[in-house]
Amino acid sequence: MIKKNRLFTPGPTPLLPAAQTAMASYGAHHRTADFRALFARVLADVKEFIGTKNDVLVLSSSGTGFMEASVSNLTSPGDRVLVLTAGKFGERWASLAKAFGCSVETVTAPYGETFSLEEVRRKLSPTIRCVYMQATESSTGVRHDVERIAELVRTSSDTRPDTLLVVDAITGLGTTRLDVDDWGVDVIIGGSQKALMIPPGLAYGAIGERAWQRMETAKSPRYYFDLRKERKSAAKAETAYTPATSLFAGLAAALDYVRQMGDGNLAAGRDALIANAELCAAMTRAGVEALGLKLFAPSSPAAALTAVAAPAGVDSTAICKRFRDQFGAVVANGQAEMKGQLFRIAHIGYYDYLDTVGVLAALEHVIAEATGRPVEFGCAVRAAQQVYAKVR
Ligand SMILES: *Cc1c(COP(=O)(O)O)cnc(C)c1O
């Protein structure tokens, strides 16, 4: 049969056709009125998409660039920071903070689980200058409780009023409700290749007043990712250096699409995008369990992706390979030491009912052939349909 190449990976995600067209035809120079108008529009739309009154920035880099900026701009060597880590992206925060000479405290949760709030409470102290976490840990498919953790950071008598909370929501934005300003999140970060349906290369984020103030005294070295410099340029609708212009054109088209999803209201469109991911995720979890497979993160599953434990005796690498060879579908393997143990199916961004039901139908064949055990064809698809029908 024909195999269409389809991404089911939690970044990069499938591209929005309207964004592809916009990118292909964009050729303006970045120091022109044309680009300034596009840039100003994108910043205003990103602000609405995040749902914040704080200043937003869009950087030409992958998501990790904005993560690095959130360490280099907000810390000084020797600062004590608290990293909440439950997977490869949490570990990235710890490595970044160490690279800039911070003294790193951690709260860890086993892969597939989220943090104990009690332990977070115990680790907060007046000497902690910044708390770093993920909204959703894409390596394990876990959703963390940003609201409760923000509440702890903001109200604990063991934190100072200027303790900063930085949230990597690179797969959280557009898949899960994040009330950034009400909860008191100081920095929130997103990436272009996730819910916003365009290729990798842009990182965006919102930065609150406490964080802007911290930058005045933070002493870690920074140059390309100097956020104060970017903010100054952004006020003139410019970027400090040459931006990835065509990606900005794509991002504008993607944000227009989200606005259309909300009948002209971007915030409503964002909520519809979140509801879409939540429904695709619920359908997938039901399908996977009906097939007799185990969720890798059953207690706090993310809507961005579903991580599934490989069945006993089967390496998930073989499952990913079958998906690709037989169906042209790219499903993500486990990362690093989790490779072989699980596979991940994404729902973040441009996925619909047919994608979701299709990947579950393919999963039935893949599991039947990989395990050599009989599968009742239709069982995963039926369970997903029942979830869909109930929500209708
Ligand atoms: C994709 C992702 C990142 C960023 O990765 P880049 O490859 O630098 O874009 C960071 N955190 C999470 C949770 C992610 O899913």
Give an overview of the whole structure.
- The protein is 43% helix and 16% strand.
- The protein is α/β, with parallel strands linked by helices and 392 residues long.
- It has two domains: 6-13 and 265-391, Aspartate Aminotransferase, domain 1; 18-260, Type I PLP-dependent aspartate aminotransferase-like (Major domain) (Aspartate Aminotransferase, domain 2, 3-Layer(aba) Sandwich).
- The chain binds pyridoxal-5'-phosphate.
- Residues 10-11, 62-64, 89, 134, 138, 168, 170-171, 191, 200 line the site of pyridoxal-5'-phosphate (PLP).
- The site of pyridoxal-5'-phosphate has 13 residues, from helix 3.
Describe this structure in a few short sentences.
By secondary structure, the protein is α/β, with parallel strands linked by helices.
Low-confidence runs of at least 5 consecutive residues: none
Distance between the termini: 33 Å
Share in β-strands: 15-25%
Order of helices and strands: EHHEHEHEHEEEHEHEEHHHHEHEEHH
CATH architecture of the largest domain: 3-Layer(aba) Sandwich
| CATH fold node name of the largest domain | Aspartate Aminotransferase, domain 2
Largest sheet: 7 strands, mixed
Give me the oligomer status: single chain
Overall structural class, as computed from helix and strand content, comes to alpha/beta
Bound molecules: pyridoxal-5'-phosphate
* Helix share, percent: 40-55%
CATH class term of the largest domain: Alpha Beta
